[in-house]
Structures are given as C-alpha cells and as structure tokens.
Write a structure and sequence with these properties.
The protein is 6% helix and 52% strand. It is mainly beta. It has 4 domains: 161 residues; 75 residues, OB fold (Dihydrolipoamide Acetyltransferase, E2P) (Beta Barrel); 98 residues, Beta Barrel (OB fold (Dihydrolipoamide Acetyltransferase, E2P)); 83 residues, Beta Barrel (OB fold (Dihydrolipoamide Acetyltransferase, E2P)). Strands 2, 5, 6, 8, 9 and 10 form a 6-stranded antiparallel β-sheet that branches. A 5-stranded mixed barrel has the order 15-16-17-20-19. β19 and β20 form a beta hairpin. It starts with a helix and ends with a strand.
Length: 464
Amino acid sequence: MRRLASGLFLTALVALATLSGCGGSLSSSTPQQNSMVVVTGQDSPIPSVLSFVVTIDSITLGTGFSNGMVTGAQTVLSTPTSVDFARFLGLRTLLGLQSVPPGTYTAAQIVMENPVISVLNLGPPASVSTQALPFSAGGSTITLNIALNPDMTVAANGLGGITMHFDLRNSLVTDTSGNITSVNPMITFRALQVPSDPDWEIDELRGTVVSVSAPNSFVLQRVNGRQFTIDVNGQTDFQGVASSINNLPAGAVVEIAGQAQQDGSILADDVESYTTDREFLEGIVLNTTPSSGAATSLTLLVRDQIPVVSGISIGNTANVAVSNTTIFDIYHLNLPISQLLFNDSMMVMGQAVVAGGTVDNTTNPPTLDARRVVLHRQGIDGQAVSGSINLNTGTFQLQNNGFWGYVLNAPVPVLTTQFTQFINVSGLSAITPSMNLRVVGLLLRDGSGNPILVAGRVENLPLP
C-alpha cells in the first residue's frame, strides 16, 4: 500500500498541474489462535452528521446463542473502547486482537453504550452542536446478538479475522421534522476468509510508545490502556519526529498502519510519530484564518485526542495555531513533494488532519500551537454528476449532500490515476450517475487552487 501511495501521488502532482489549465465445535485445549476484529464505519442519513462516538464495552464470539447468551463464548474485546464511526468512512481501525481456540465461529455479541453525535448546523454562521442519544430499545446501553455472515473457521496456529460494519446510514432514528432522536444500531460481522482481503489492513492505530526493542519492535499503548506489540522491518516507512526505530523514544505519540500477525503482533507498513512530549488532536478542518493565503490558525472539529486535554473534547471544536515553523506532511507519503501539495497555503475546508503540539490554556477555549500538521485520507460518499466523467483527465464530479457538498457549495471534483483501485466497478468509464459511490483519498488543491479529491479507491456500494 505504501508503494501504491507513493506512485499515486507522484502521478497526482503531474495531473494537478495539468488540471490547472484544463455452527461448529471448539477445542477445549489452551488457546492457540489469534483472532482479529477490524472496525469500519458508514456515513449517516443526515447530511450534517460529522461525528458519531459510541463506547464498545465488549465483543464476544461463539457457536450460537442460548437464552440470550453466546455459547462457547470467546471474548475478543474486553476493554471499553470509544470509536467515532463517522471517522472511519472507507477506513479501518483495530478493535481487538485476541487468542481464541481453533474451530468454527458462527455468532457474535456486542455490548455498547453512550452514543454521542455531533451535527453541523448550517447557519449562517455554521456551528457544531453535540448531544448524547439514547438507544431505540431504551437507555444508554445495548446488547446485540448477531450471526456471522459468513462463519469464521480458525485453524490451529492460524489467523482469523472479522470486520464489524456499523451502518450509520440506517441506524439513526429521526422524527417527522428530521431531528435525530435515538440510535437503532444496524451492525453486521463479516468473517475475513483470506489475508489478501482489503479489510485485513489496519489504516489508523494510534497511541503512546511504552517501550522500544530496537531494531525489531516497540510496544504501543492505546488511550484505553490496551497494549500491542508493533513489529517493524526493512520495508517499514518511518515519518515524523523519529526517522527510524532507533530514535523512537518512549512517550512518543504515534500512528501505525499495517496488518495483524498470527503471534498477536502487528507488522507496521508505516509509523508516523507526531510528538514526543506534547499533545495530539485529529479532526476535520472547518475553517482557516485567513481564508486564503498562508493560514495562521484553523478551527478543528476534534475526533480524537491524546492525551485528554482539559477544555478540549471529542465532538467539539478546537483552535489550532500554525506558523512558518509548523511542519506540514501527508500520511503514507514519505516524499519531498508532500509539502508542495499540503502546506499552510494549501489547506481546504473539510480536510482530515492530525496536529501535534503544545496546548495553550491561557485562551478560551484552549489553543493547540501546532509543531506538525499531517493530512490524512478520508472517504466521501455520493453519486457521479451526469456528464461529468472526463476520460482524458481522469476526473469526474461527485455529488455529496453532506458536509463536503456544503463547504464546497458544489460537487466534489475527483481525480483518478492508473493507481486508483476500482471496486465493484470496472473503471472510470463504467461509472454511472445511478451508482452509490465511495471515494477514499486525499482532499487537496489543484494547480488553480481549487479543492480536488485524489482517489486511492473508488467503490460502487450496494443500494441502501
């Protein structure tokens, strides 16, 4: 994936310049198998939803259900973990990596609590409001029993995997006025049959470095206290304040992408180190100051933070100050051209970014003085505008009725290249306006300064 990303954006640099002118049994033996649970999220039916955070208390696998309980229960997530499912549109994060006995698993039970939603109020002026929601069944906690489709068979000393799909599009309940009133979770669990399945790849796993065993591995601790061993090799790409594992200090806030391994470790394709002794915020750019030219600050809708900072909370906005000493970079793109594509003059409203720096608590709300700002991939759903497909330039217009359509006040321009992966559609020429599309890529500015989504993946989704 790292090599594909490098090729994609080398091509994109040229293209952007061009566009400026134009039921089984389980063994009772000691657990031998690591089972991975990977989480992806869907967008919501309400265009203004920016964040949907829910705490997952536990996930249990088994061979069926009896009196509301999982039979042959094996817990793969026991540490409560908060997840923003709106953030993982087209991306994947790791929930659990746990040893279980070999056998065939047919059922899953998930316990969740405290859903909180953040909504963009279009105004004018635009603002963000956050509210806690009950589940439709009543209360703030819910237990769901879900059959695996397909089943997951784990061989002795093998590796199994399951991806959890939270369909926000059909999970939010509204009243006759369109106001969101509750959550009726629509969740599926799909077993991953082969390691080549795209859902084996972990896109974003963040935490703090606990210890380093150079040159082969380090231990990463997530905000919920769960620790994972991260393996590295000669192909692992290091970006940020640490150029290799040899100068990666304990206490550093890092993010990795990679794949789980049979021994319970994760082999990293990329390691991005944001800061060694400061704070980390991730979110969506709502606006920049000034609105053109070199920005001195930006307003960020916070979707993740390490550590928890008083006065800054997930689902609300935070101020981020930038200067001529702030380093700008692109995640998964360890090339000199990254700062040509993304810098203090190339930010776009709606971009997904991570900022690392020092919090200034003398302001209200607090301000993060950014030492480093990193652009991330993101997913945008919509339909192709009729007549917009241009095979010569590899572009089309994506009609989005949510946040990105609002901030751009127009369809989202999409650029595809020979490195773009097409899923459930044979290529750009096969796209039709009737398709529900998801485009995952980087939101950048083209050579004329206009926003454009450079596509790493274009997927034709099933009809809702």
